[in-house]
Specification:
The protein is mainly alpha-helical. It has one domain. Helix 1 packs antiparallel against helix 3.
């Protein structure tokens, strides 16, 4: 099986996984540093994940804390990756285990 045979699965899955793991890094690091910390690693985490966190914040109740919104973002990305895989497999377009 060639990577380019299923590029439409692998590339979106990789991008979603990268955002998800960056959100996990932001969540863990956020327990130890203030939200407005000026470190370059923290700024990178925020640069990559802020658009997605804002999207999740838009659809979640305002009473939830920022940390809970980040956790929901991680869960939404996990669910979306799974739904994407199952959809492609059901359409006969997904990678098969052989």
């Amino acid at each position: 099986m060639n990577f380019w045979s299923y590029w439409y699965f692998h590339i979106p899955n990789f991008v979603l996984a990268a955002i998800m793991y960056t959100l996990i890094g932001r969540l863990v690091l956020g327990f130890f540093v203030p939200e407005n910390w000026d470190n370059y690693i923290w700024r990178f985490f925020r640069l990559v994940t802020d658009p997605f966190v804002k999207l999740v914040r838009f659809v979640t109740p305002q009473v939830l804390s920022h940390t809970v919104v980040v956790v929901f973002g991680i869960l939404w990305l996990m669910a979306f990756r799974l739904v994407y895989l199952v959809t492609l497999i059901n359409l006969g377009l997904g990678p098969s285990s052989s």
